[in-house]
């Protein structure tokens, strides 16, 4: 998902989409998962030169990814769509909006209980051995920028440094996620549940474990047969309920928790053993996947009402 936080921020995207041929390119790629430039040009009945210009605009806007692959007649460029959704905030936030922002590295979890297949890696190397749960307790886990497991959970404490005498009105979390298949499988659904302070606030079903093209920010040593990228999900809990990418997934709202500047904020991601789809979880950090970010959190707050 691409989250555009103001109309002005999306200008590059609007220009990239303001073309019938580029819309057709996206539709064809979605239907075929990915295609090389020759296949795509032939399908659209345009020249490779004309296609290159359109592809460049879509790539600059972050809509598609282009990777080189070896072929019998030299290298070919293969194209695929990066985004599953585009979320645009039409309402401009006021400049004095009371918001505290923070980032959490993937490896900075404070509690876990996981089952194989599982593993962790930093930007430079695997941490321990694949499918050995013990390494989730290794001190090196703090350096992890990607982790994956078949079922179970990881839990993070969200830093809460909003000013004193304030209450929390909304928590927004941006995070790149996918399922975890034993290898890679784009059709591998997984019910991923989200908890705040031990209360389940909703569930989102990941469609698969993606690996048909290389993640755009993956380190060079990362094998092509491993998890490549996820979907960027935008989780919001406010007074109206809990939402994923603007779609309500539960009626549990922030008011149920009575959160203030003194509250501990525990955020858990879980794949439960009794879920309809037990397809694992992969969490991508700043140096893995398609989005160069950690777990990004925004907390909106306002003064506590006097008794």
Describe, in plain words, how this protein is organized in 3D.
Helix 1 (11-17) runs antiparallel to helix 4. 13% of the residues lie in helices and 37% in strands. The strands form 4 sheets. Strands 6, 8, 9, 11, 14, 15, 16, 18 and 19 form a 9-stranded antiparallel beta sheet that branches. It is globular and about 65 Å long. It is mainly beta. It has helices at 11-17, 20-32, 37-44, 48-60, and strands spanning 2-4, 34-36, 64-71, 74-81, 86-88, 99-104, 111-115, 119-121, 146-149, 151-158, 166-178, 190-196, 199-206, 231-238, 241-244, 247-250, 265-271, 281-284, 295-303. The relative contact order is 0.18. A hairpin with a 2-residue loop joins strand 14 (231-238) and strand 15 (241-244).
List keywords for this structure.
mainly beta, nine-stranded antiparallel sheet, 4 helices, 13% helix
């Amino acid at each position: 998902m691409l989250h555009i936080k103001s109309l002005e921020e999306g200008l590059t995207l609007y220009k990239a989409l303001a073309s019938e041929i580029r819309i057709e390119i996206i539709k064809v790629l979605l239907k075929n998962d990915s295609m090389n430039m020759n296949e795509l040009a032939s399908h659209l009945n345009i020249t490779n030169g004309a296609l290159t210009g359109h592809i460049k605009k879509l790539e600059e806007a972050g809509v598609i990814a282009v990777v080189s692959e070896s072929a019998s007649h030299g290298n070919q460029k293969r194209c695929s769509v990066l985004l599953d959704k585009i979320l645009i905030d039409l309402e401009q936030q006021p400049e004095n909006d009371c918001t505290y922002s923070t980032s959490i590295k993937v490896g900075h979890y404070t509690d876990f209980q996981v089952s194989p297949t599982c593993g962790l890696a930093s930007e430079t190397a695997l941490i321990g051995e694949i499918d050995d749960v013990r390494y989730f307790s290794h001190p090196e886990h703090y350096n992890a920028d990607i982790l994956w497991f078949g079922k179970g959970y990881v839990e993070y404490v969200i830093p809460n440094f909003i000013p004193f005498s304030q209450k929390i009105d909304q928590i927004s979390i941006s995070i790149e996620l996918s399922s975890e298949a034993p290898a890679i499988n784009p059709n591998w659904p997984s019910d991923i549940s989200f908890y705040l302070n031990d209360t389940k606030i909703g569930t989102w079903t990941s469609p698969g474990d993606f690996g048909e093209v290389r993640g755009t920010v993956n380190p060079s040593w990362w094998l092509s047969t491993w998890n490549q990228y996820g979907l960027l999900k935008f989780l919001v809990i406010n007074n109206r309920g809990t939402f994923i990418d603007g779609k309500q997934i539960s009626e549990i709202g922030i008011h149920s928790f009575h959160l203030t500047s003194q509250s501990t904020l525990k955020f858990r991601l879980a794949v439960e053993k009794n879920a309809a789809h037990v397809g694992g979880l992969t969490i991508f950090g700043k140096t893995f996947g398609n989005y160069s970010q950690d777990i990004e959190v925004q907390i909106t707050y306002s003064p506590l009402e006097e008794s």
